[in-house]
TrEMBL record:
SMART domains given in the database record: HTH_ARAC
Domain HTH araC/xylS-type residue range list: 165-263
InterPro entries in the cross-refs: AraC_XylS_family_regulators (IPR050204), ExsA-like_N (IPR054015), Homeodomain-like_sf (IPR009057), HTH_AraC (IPR018060), Tscrpt_reg_AraC-type_HTH (IPR020449)
A Pfam entry, by short name: HTH_18
GO molecular function terms listed in the Swiss-Prot or TrEMBL record: DNA-binding transcription factor activity; sequence-specific DNA binding
Keywords: DNA-binding, Transcription, Transcription regulation
Organism whose genome encodes this protein: Hymenobacter crusticola
Protein name: HTH araC/xylS-type domain-containing protein
Amino acid sequence: MPYNTASNSERTKITLRYHLFSFLVEGEKVVTYPTVTARIVPGQFLLLPAGNCLMSEKLAGPTHAYQSMLLFFSNEALTAFFQKHPDLGMGVGTERVAPPFHVFEADEFLTNFVRSLSLLASSGAELTASIQQLKLEELLLYVSRQQPGALHALLASASETAENQRIRAVMAADLPVHITVEDLAFLCHTSLSTFKRRFARLYGTPPNKWLTRQRLAMAAQLLRQGTLKTSDIYDQVGYENVSSFIQSFKQAYGITPKQFQMQQTS
Protein backbone atom coordinates (compact mmCIF):
# COMPACT_ATOMS: atom_id res chain seq x y z
CA MET A 1 0.00 0.00 0.00
CA PRO A 2 1.27 3.51 -0.79
CA TYR A 3 1.86 5.90 2.10
CA ASN A 4 2.33 9.64 1.50
CA THR A 5 2.35 12.59 3.89
CA ALA A 6 2.66 16.36 3.52
CA SER A 7 4.00 17.10 7.00
CA ASN A 8 7.09 16.27 9.04
CA SER A 9 6.83 14.09 12.13
CA GLU A 10 9.29 13.67 15.01
CA ARG A 11 9.67 10.50 17.12
CA THR A 12 6.09 9.34 16.63
CA LYS A 13 5.26 6.30 18.76
CA ILE A 14 4.33 3.48 16.39
CA THR A 15 3.00 0.05 17.31
CA LEU A 16 3.32 -2.37 14.40
CA ARG A 17 0.89 -5.27 14.66
CA TYR A 18 2.60 -6.99 11.72
CA HIS A 19 6.09 -7.20 10.25
CA LEU A 20 6.75 -4.53 7.64
CA PHE A 21 8.72 -3.89 4.47
CA SER A 22 8.97 -0.12 3.99
CA PHE A 23 10.24 1.17 0.63
CA LEU A 24 11.22 4.84 0.75
CA VAL A 25 10.56 6.67 -2.54
CA GLU A 26 11.01 10.29 -1.46
CA GLY A 27 11.84 12.00 1.84
CA GLU A 28 13.81 10.85 4.87
CA LYS A 29 12.96 8.42 7.67
CA VAL A 30 14.57 7.78 11.06
CA VAL A 31 13.52 4.66 12.96
CA THR A 32 14.47 3.77 16.53
CA TYR A 33 13.97 0.19 17.68
CA PRO A 34 15.07 -1.28 21.02
CA THR A 35 18.67 -1.89 19.90
CA VAL A 36 19.22 0.20 16.79
CA THR A 37 18.52 3.58 15.22
CA ALA A 38 18.80 4.08 11.46
CA ARG A 39 18.35 6.98 9.03
CA ILE A 40 16.86 5.96 5.69
CA VAL A 41 17.06 7.88 2.42
CA PRO A 42 15.42 7.22 -0.97
CA GLY A 43 16.81 4.12 -2.63
CA GLN A 44 16.79 2.14 0.61
CA PHE A 45 14.18 -0.04 2.26
CA LEU A 46 13.53 -1.42 5.72
CA LEU A 47 12.51 -4.75 7.16
CA LEU A 48 10.91 -4.07 10.56
CA PRO A 49 9.57 -6.58 13.09
CA ALA A 50 6.19 -6.23 14.72
CA GLY A 51 6.37 -4.24 17.94
CA ASN A 52 7.00 -0.72 19.21
CA CYS A 53 9.31 1.79 17.55
CA LEU A 54 9.86 5.55 17.29
CA MET A 55 9.55 6.91 13.78
CA SER A 56 10.44 10.32 12.33
CA GLU A 57 9.53 11.31 8.77
CA LYS A 58 10.93 14.34 6.95
CA LEU A 59 9.81 15.93 3.71
CA ALA A 60 12.62 16.17 1.15
CA GLY A 61 13.44 15.80 -2.51
CA PRO A 62 12.56 17.94 -5.52
CA THR A 63 8.84 18.00 -4.66
CA HIS A 64 9.42 18.44 -0.90
CA ALA A 65 7.29 15.38 -0.13
CA TYR A 66 7.35 12.07 1.66
CA GLN A 67 6.38 8.98 -0.32
CA SER A 68 6.77 5.32 0.52
CA MET A 69 5.34 1.91 -0.24
CA LEU A 70 4.43 -0.37 2.67
CA LEU A 71 4.01 -4.13 2.67
CA PHE A 72 2.74 -5.73 5.90
CA PHE A 73 2.84 -9.45 6.66
CA SER A 74 2.17 -11.65 9.67
CA ASN A 75 4.42 -14.09 11.45
CA GLU A 76 2.03 -16.82 10.31
CA ALA A 77 2.69 -15.82 6.69
CA LEU A 78 6.44 -15.99 7.30
CA THR A 79 6.13 -19.40 8.92
CA ALA A 80 4.05 -20.64 5.99
CA PHE A 81 6.72 -19.35 3.60
CA PHE A 82 9.46 -21.41 5.28
CA GLN A 83 7.17 -24.42 5.35
CA LYS A 84 6.60 -24.08 1.61
CA HIS A 85 10.34 -23.62 0.98
CA PRO A 86 12.07 -25.99 3.44
CA ASP A 87 15.37 -25.60 1.59
CA LEU A 88 15.48 -22.04 2.94
CA GLY A 89 15.02 -23.15 6.54
CA MET A 90 17.39 -22.25 9.33
CA GLY A 91 20.48 -24.41 9.25
CA VAL A 92 23.05 -25.23 11.90
CA GLY A 93 25.07 -22.22 12.91
CA THR A 94 22.73 -19.70 11.29
CA GLU A 95 23.12 -16.40 13.07
CA ARG A 96 20.07 -15.01 14.81
CA VAL A 97 20.07 -11.25 15.17
CA ALA A 98 17.63 -9.60 17.56
CA PRO A 99 15.84 -7.46 16.78
CA PRO A 100 15.75 -8.19 13.03
CA PHE A 101 15.96 -4.57 11.90
CA HIS A 102 17.54 -4.47 8.45
CA VAL A 103 18.28 -1.77 5.89
CA PHE A 104 18.63 -2.80 2.25
CA GLU A 105 19.99 -0.88 -0.71
CA ALA A 106 17.59 -0.97 -3.64
CA ASP A 107 18.89 -2.77 -6.73
CA GLU A 108 17.24 -3.29 -10.11
CA PHE A 109 14.99 -6.05 -8.79
CA LEU A 110 13.73 -4.00 -5.83
CA THR A 111 13.22 -0.91 -7.99
CA ASN A 112 11.08 -2.90 -10.40
CA PHE A 113 9.28 -4.61 -7.53
CA VAL A 114 8.25 -1.27 -6.00
CA ARG A 115 7.20 -0.05 -9.45
CA SER A 116 4.98 -3.11 -9.86
CA LEU A 117 3.34 -2.44 -6.48
CA SER A 118 2.71 1.17 -7.49
CA LEU A 119 1.14 0.08 -10.77
CA LEU A 120 -1.11 -2.42 -9.01
CA ALA A 121 -2.17 0.18 -6.44
CA SER A 122 -2.90 2.84 -9.06
CA SER A 123 -4.76 0.54 -11.47
CA GLY A 124 -7.95 0.69 -9.44
CA ALA A 125 -8.34 -3.08 -9.62
CA GLU A 126 -8.93 -5.04 -6.43
CA LEU A 127 -5.78 -6.47 -4.89
CA THR A 128 -6.98 -9.97 -4.12
CA ALA A 129 -5.48 -12.03 -1.33
CA SER A 130 -3.84 -14.32 -3.88
CA ILE A 131 -2.11 -11.40 -5.61
CA GLN A 132 -0.89 -10.01 -2.29
CA GLN A 133 0.40 -13.43 -1.27
CA LEU A 134 2.17 -13.83 -4.61
CA LYS A 135 3.94 -10.46 -4.31
CA LEU A 136 4.94 -11.18 -0.72
CA GLU A 137 6.36 -14.57 -1.66
CA GLU A 138 8.29 -12.98 -4.52
CA LEU A 139 9.91 -10.51 -2.14
CA LEU A 140 10.60 -13.09 0.59
CA LEU A 141 12.31 -15.36 -1.92
CA TYR A 142 14.52 -12.47 -3.00
CA VAL A 143 15.44 -11.48 0.58
CA SER A 144 16.03 -15.09 1.63
CA ARG A 145 18.72 -15.37 -1.00
CA GLN A 146 20.26 -11.93 -0.47
CA GLN A 147 20.24 -11.85 3.34
CA PRO A 148 18.82 -15.12 4.71
CA GLY A 149 19.72 -14.16 8.26
CA ALA A 150 17.23 -11.28 8.14
CA LEU A 151 14.20 -13.54 7.74
CA HIS A 152 15.53 -16.15 10.15
CA ALA A 153 16.03 -13.48 12.81
CA LEU A 154 12.55 -12.11 12.14
CA LEU A 155 11.03 -15.54 12.69
CA ALA A 156 13.09 -16.05 15.85
CA SER A 157 11.97 -12.69 17.26
CA ALA A 158 8.35 -13.83 17.43
CA SER A 159 8.94 -15.32 20.86
CA GLU A 160 8.90 -12.76 23.65
CA THR A 161 12.17 -11.89 25.34
CA ALA A 162 12.45 -11.31 29.07
CA GLU A 163 11.63 -7.79 30.19
CA ASN A 164 15.01 -7.28 31.80
CA GLN A 165 16.80 -8.39 28.63
CA ARG A 166 14.72 -5.95 26.63
CA ILE A 167 15.56 -3.06 28.93
CA ARG A 168 19.28 -3.88 28.85
CA ALA A 169 19.17 -4.09 25.05
CA VAL A 170 17.47 -0.70 24.78
CA MET A 171 19.91 1.03 27.09
CA ALA A 172 22.89 -0.46 25.24
CA ALA A 173 21.65 0.88 21.92
CA ASP A 174 22.76 4.03 20.07
CA LEU A 175 19.75 6.11 21.10
CA PRO A 176 18.78 9.63 19.94
CA VAL A 177 20.19 12.27 22.30
CA HIS A 178 16.76 13.85 22.90
CA ILE A 179 15.06 10.58 23.86
CA THR A 180 12.91 10.76 26.97
CA VAL A 181 12.17 8.28 29.74
CA GLU A 182 8.65 8.00 28.32
CA ASP A 183 10.14 7.05 24.94
CA LEU A 184 12.30 4.38 26.58
CA ALA A 185 9.33 2.90 28.43
CA PHE A 186 7.42 2.71 25.16
CA LEU A 187 10.29 0.94 23.39
CA CYS A 188 10.43 -1.55 26.27
CA HIS A 189 6.71 -2.35 25.94
CA THR A 190 5.97 -1.28 29.52
CA SER A 191 4.11 1.44 31.34
CA LEU A 192 6.17 4.37 32.59
CA SER A 193 5.89 3.34 36.24
CA THR A 194 6.83 -0.28 35.50
CA PHE A 195 9.80 0.80 33.41
CA LYS A 196 11.12 3.11 36.14
CA ARG A 197 10.80 0.39 38.76
CA ARG A 198 12.52 -2.30 36.66
CA PHE A 199 15.23 0.10 35.48
CA ALA A 200 16.10 1.17 39.01
CA ARG A 201 16.30 -2.46 40.10
CA LEU A 202 18.65 -3.30 37.20
CA TYR A 203 20.92 -0.24 37.28
CA GLY A 204 20.59 0.99 40.84
CA THR A 205 19.53 4.48 39.71
CA PRO A 206 16.42 6.11 38.21
CA PRO A 207 16.37 6.27 34.39
CA ASN A 208 16.33 10.09 34.29
CA LYS A 209 19.54 10.21 36.33
CA TRP A 210 21.08 7.56 34.07
CA LEU A 211 20.23 9.64 30.99
CA THR A 212 21.66 12.78 32.61
CA ARG A 213 24.89 10.97 33.44
CA GLN A 214 25.26 9.73 29.87
CA ARG A 215 24.58 13.18 28.39
CA LEU A 216 27.05 14.90 30.68
CA ALA A 217 29.72 12.30 29.96
CA MET A 218 29.23 12.99 26.25
CA ALA A 219 29.42 16.73 26.91
CA ALA A 220 32.67 16.35 28.87
CA GLN A 221 34.18 14.39 26.00
CA LEU A 222 33.24 17.13 23.52
CA LEU A 223 34.59 19.84 25.80
CA ARG A 224 37.93 18.05 26.12
CA GLN A 225 38.38 18.36 22.36
CA GLY A 226 38.55 22.13 22.84
CA THR A 227 36.96 23.06 19.50
CA LEU A 228 33.31 23.56 20.55
CA LYS A 229 31.72 26.17 22.79
CA THR A 230 29.03 25.50 25.38
CA SER A 231 26.46 27.02 23.02
CA ASP A 232 27.50 24.50 20.38
CA ILE A 233 27.31 21.47 22.64
CA TYR A 234 24.11 21.64 24.69
CA ASP A 235 21.76 20.55 21.88
CA GLN A 236 24.12 17.78 20.72
CA VAL A 237 23.87 16.11 24.13
CA GLY A 238 20.08 16.40 24.51
CA TYR A 239 19.46 19.65 26.42
CA GLU A 240 16.73 22.09 25.43
CA ASN A 241 18.66 25.25 26.35
CA VAL A 242 22.10 26.44 27.45
CA SER A 243 21.15 27.46 30.97
CA SER A 244 19.76 24.04 31.96
CA PHE A 245 22.85 22.39 30.48
CA ILE A 246 25.24 24.65 32.44
CA GLN A 247 23.30 24.10 35.67
CA SER A 248 23.24 20.31 35.23
CA PHE A 249 26.93 20.18 34.31
CA LYS A 250 27.96 22.28 37.32
CA GLN A 251 25.96 20.04 39.68
CA ALA A 252 27.81 16.99 38.37
CA TYR A 253 31.36 18.38 37.95
CA GLY A 254 31.42 21.30 40.41
CA ILE A 255 32.42 23.81 37.72
CA THR A 256 30.85 25.30 34.60
CA PRO A 257 31.42 23.76 31.16
CA LYS A 258 33.66 26.68 30.20
CA GLN A 259 35.81 26.27 33.31
CA PHE A 260 36.00 22.52 32.68
CA GLN A 261 37.14 23.09 29.11
CA MET A 262 39.81 25.59 30.20
CA GLN A 263 41.18 23.09 32.73
CA GLN A 264 41.29 20.30 30.18
CA THR A 265 42.95 22.32 27.43
CA SER A 266 45.43 24.33 29.51
